[in-house]
TrEMBL record:
Top-level taxon: Bacteria
SUPFAM superfamilies named in the record: Nudix
Cofactor: Mg(2+)
Reaction(s) this enzyme catalyzes, per UniProt: 8-oxo-dGTP + H2O = 8-oxo-dGMP + diphosphate + H(+); 8-oxo-GTP + H2O = 8-oxo-GMP + diphosphate + H(+)
One Pfam family here: NUDIX
Family: Belongs to the Nudix hydrolase family.
Keyword annotations: DNA damage, DNA repair, DNA replication, Hydrolase, Magnesium, Metal-binding, Mutator protein
Gene Ontology terms, MF aspect: 8-oxo-7,8-dihydrodeoxyguanosine triphosphate pyrophosphatase activity; 8-oxo-7,8-dihydroguanosine triphosphate pyrophosphatase activity; 8-oxo-dGDP phosphatase activity; 8-oxo-GDP phosphatase activity; metal ion binding
Nudix hydrolase domain span: 1-126
Protein name: 8-oxo-dGTP diphosphatase
EC numbers: 3.6.1.55
Residue ranges that the Swiss-Prot or TrEMBL entry lists as coiled coil: none
GO biological process: DNA repair; DNA replication
Length: 126
């Protein structure tokens, strides 16, 4: 199983969401930024590294939310979400096609990567 971390980054009562590019797997789906855990890497080190690589920003990790296992046709992933805040740096996308800062009430309107749906629903309850 592939272990993937993602971050729900909050600022000004909004949360950051990113859209995958055409040339990525799950093209055009919305997700929380993050990526695969490397060998011998901790979950928290992974999410901090991935956010720096993908978005050029620094985050403070606040809390681990409930991991979610999802079986895509070609592989299973365990998606491990973290609540975080934007600590500094100007956001620049390295891989994704778009980002949005959204209010909670608008999150379920997006076309999410399937593995993210339970995470969005948990986030809406907190
Ligand atoms: N970062 C991130 N990945 C997610 C989310 N939801 C979800 O299903 N994934 C999947 O988890 C994997 C994350 O890997 P990644 O971001 O490091 O990898 P990638 O797109 O370069 O890899 P890939 O081309 O092998 O899919 C991808 O297969 C991606 O489709 C999410 O919210 N955030």
């Amino acid at each position: 199983m592939i272990r993937v971390t993602c971050a729900l980054i909050e600022a000004n009562n909004k949360v950051l969401v990113v859209q995958r590019s055409e040339n990525m797997s799950l093209p055009n789906k919305w997700e929380f930024p993050g990526g695969k855990i490397e060998p011998n890497e901790s979950e928290r080190a992974c999410i901090i590294r991935e956010i720096k690589e993908e978005l050029n920003i620094d985050i403070t990790v606040l809390k681990r939310l409930s991991p979610c296992v999802y079986k895509y046709p070609k592989r299973s992933i365990q998606l491990i979400p973290f609540l975080a805040v934007h600590k500094g740096g100007e956001l620049k996308l390295a891989e994704h096609k778009k980002f949005l800062w959204l209010q909670k009430k608008d999150l379920l309107k997006l076309n999410w990567a399937e593995a993210d749906v339970p995470i969005v629903k948990e986030y809406l309850k907190i």
